[in-house]
Amino acid sequence: MSLFDLTGKVAIVTGSSRGIGRAIVERMAEQGARLVVSSRHIEPCRQVAAAINAKCGDGRAIAVAANISAKDELKHLVDETMRAFGKIDVLVCNAGSNPHYGPMATITDEQFRKILDNNVLANHWLIGMVAPQMLARKDGSIIIVSSVGGFKGSPVIGAYAISKAADFQLARNLAVEFGPHNVRVNCIAPGLIRTAFARALWENPDTLRRSTARTPLGRIGEPDEIAGAAILLASPAGRFMTGQIVVVDGGATIT
Q1: What's the whole-number mean pLDDT along residues 225-240?
Q2: CA distances in angstroms from 40 to 45, 64, 96, 189, 222, listed in the order given
Q3: 12-21, 147-156, 208-217, 224-233: which has the minimum mean pLDDT?
Q4: From residue 2, how far is each of 6, 32, 50, 165, 240 by CA, in Å?
Q5: How far apart are CA 91 and CA 12, in angstroms?
Q6: Domains of the chain (ranges, CATH numbers)
Q7: Mind giving me the DSSP string for 70-131?
Q8: Per-residue model confidence (pLDDT) at position 212
């Protein structure tokens, strides 16, 4: 059996109708997992689930819409997953938001609260809903997709960086709490990835040039290049990893 085999595992991935989340569900399906594709709008989720089922077999993926800012919708997501598959082995908290681009002095309270609510509190909610059945079975992997922004300051995405640093500590703290029950909690910290979410950081040629000037690989990443880290953390290959931050950034943070 491959160390990266996910056959028989059930995974929820939030924000998986596009970008990094979509790459993760598609690659996990290839490794044998059954997937719950989720984002705010149901139709894009259905399209991704249909593509997975066409490629990997009917019943491998379902679509469940959920707005991460709504606690009742997250509960519905968990309930529908349990109804369809009977368990949750892997949770990937990928969805997030960043409604403000600019210095901290110009952010409104509403924007700041939305960033903290969606990027930290919503993860806490969803993990709290999923973890009990993992703890009871003494098996599970929880993955928070954070950002290298959590390691450093920024003149334009400061509040977002603050929320991502909080995700690092959320993972560390839950790893301590859940470890005795064989449930692992880790973060992935992507660098600049070519997604619609990060468009403001790469679509401008001057901004892109500055972002990659000192990056050893000399380019930004693609969504599919994050999926491998998620499979590592979800699979037997990562069974002795918990409370860690896996940086996937082309080397940007080392220079």
Answers
A1: 98
A2: 9, 9, 11, 23, 23
A3: 208-217
A4: 9, 11, 26, 33, 16
A5: 5
A6: 10-254 (3.40.50.720)
A7: -HHHHHHHHHHHHHHHS---EEEE--------B-GGG--HHHHHHHHIIIIIHHHHHHHHHH
A8: 84
* 254, pLDDT greater than 90: yes
Nearest alpha-carbon partner for 121 in 103, 152, 95: 95
Q: Is 160 a catalytic residue?
A: yes
Which string of DSSP letters, residue by residue, matches 150-189?
GGS--SSBHHHHHHHHHHHHHHHHHHHHHGGGTEEEEEEE
Say which of 4, 85, 125, 160 is annotated catalytic: 160
pLDDT score for 196: 75
For residues 145-162, give the mean pLDDT.
95
